[in-house]
Amino acid sequence: MSSRRKVAVIGAGWAGLAAAAALAPHTEVTLFEAGREAGGRARKVAADAGFSFLDNGQHLLIGAYRSVFRLLESAGVRRDNAFLHLPMQWYLHDGLRFSIKHGRFLGIRAKSLPAPLNLACALLGAENAPFAARLSLLNKLDALQKHARRTAPDQSIADWLAARRVPQAQIEQFWQPLVWGALNTPLAEGSLKTLTNVLADGVWADAAHSDYYLPKTDLGALFAEPLIERICAQGGRYRPSCRVGRIVCEAGGVRVNGEDYDAAVAAVAPYHLGALLPESAADAFQAALSALRYHAITTVYLRYPQALPLPAAMTGFARGTAQWLIDRSRLNGQPETAAVISLSEQHGSLSTDEWISRVHADILRVCPTAPAPVVARAITEKRATAARPIGVAPPDQSSLNAQRIFLAGDWLHPRYPATLEAAVQSGEAAAQALLARRQ
Question: Could you say which EC number(s) this protein's record lists (predicted)?
């Protein structure tokens, strides 16, 4: 009989997969997933006829996602094969444009400089913006970096920008797209400390950390499937389409779906947590769960008769419905475009046809002769991200851990917004906490 502990990991999103992968070499893991597809809020979707692949949202990884890439490499996924790798670039059709790879100022190439000087050089040499506006933006970024070094109470990004009288044009062309893309949060709700954490570990830390990585295939083939294969190869079990009821705490362990385990990792979305935890624990977490704010992301996929002549792999708009257009022909040669709309709830309840019509209108601004799409689809994740109120720390798990239950999820990360990197780090942290706790 095995002396290894039996652990249930509930939820096969990126946090649950990371936790199960970390636990599999040391315990007998059973990974439960209520849906048919693993991946949670970053999963593949059955591709419609005419599309090369579909996910429930277009995702962008950056070089600072070290835990994600380390986990992928452990499962045999080669970064260079799985992603289109691009140095940081910023191309707004109706605004600011700069590039780390091609930017230069006074003959100095941005890519030859270390971070964050590379970004400063690229900004000073930016296009489609007056020099005074570029210099003002650089000054604000410098002020933000200095602010991040000081110990100060957290505040909203909107309040910080207002205190420095940042012009509306600069907000529209830089700060708003940055915060929407990185935090998926309105400026008035976005934590300045969270934003500076992202910048400190990304563009300010290392030149390679700000590089973009666009998946060339669906997130199932790229992430979920290789990890599940690895988990199962190490003796773990995977149970898709298996919904878990309330966890029952017993002397020396927990009971999950009628089966005894030594411990459990709950890696479900926070809005499912109340029905999963023991009732006493669920009540204790209710205030923290109720305080979370959810925001939607809509992705509109379009396939055209031929690839569109988009000017960049990622073409953005300061004003429009689509915030970023991803040229998927550069990923796999297919004439497809993915449009990302963060905070898509601000547009109201649009029908699929309305989303498609609005995004195609934005595309016509860039490519006036573009024909109608051959096929199109809009996918909305209504609660794509969860954010805590400004200044609120993650809930204390000590009482829950004492009952051999550990939580994982991007919403629990103490430093980062709800991102793929936050999910993976949270899953690995839950696994480490579980393994460190003696029976």
Answer: 1.17.8.1
Give kind and range of the element (H or E) at residue 84: strand 83-86
Q: What rounded mean pLDDT belongs to the chain?
A: 96
pLDDT value for 439: 59
Cα–Cα distance between 148 and 137 in angstroms, integer?
17
Token readout for 436 is 């460190």
Q: What is the enclosing helix (H) or strand (E) of 344?
A: none
DSSP bridge pairs for 249: 254
Does pLDDT of 152 surpass 60?
yes
Amino acid, res. 23: L
Task: Give the C-alpha distances (Å, rounded to integers) separating 124 from 106, 140, 147, 288, 315.
Answer: 9, 13, 21, 43, 20
Side chain identity at 274, as an amino acid letter? G
pLDDT bracket for residue 1 (50, 70, 90): very low
- For the cut 70, the answer to whether the pLDDT of residue 384 exceeds it is yes
Q: In terms of Cα–Cα distance, which of 410, 389, 411, 414 is closest to 190?
A: 389
pLDDT of 97 above 50: yes
Helix (H) or strand (E) holding 249: strand 248-250
Distance separating alpha carbons of residues 19 and 14, to the nearest angstrom = 9
**Nearest Cα residue to 389 out of 320, 312, 294, 303:** 294
Q: Nearest-5° angle of CA 412, CA 418, CA 421?
A: 90
User: Distance between CA 170 and CA 224 in Å, rounded?
Assistant: 39
Number of CB atoms found within 10 A of residue 150's CB: 6
* CA dihedral for 227, 298, 176, 308, sign (positive or negative): positive
Is the pLDDT at 161 greater than 60? The verdict is yes
C-alpha angle with apex 155: 149 to 159, nearest 5 degrees? 110
CA nearest 190: which of 415, 417, 425, 393? 417
Q: pLDDT exceeding 70 applies to what percent of the chain?
A: 99
The DSSP bridge partners found for residue 191 are 156
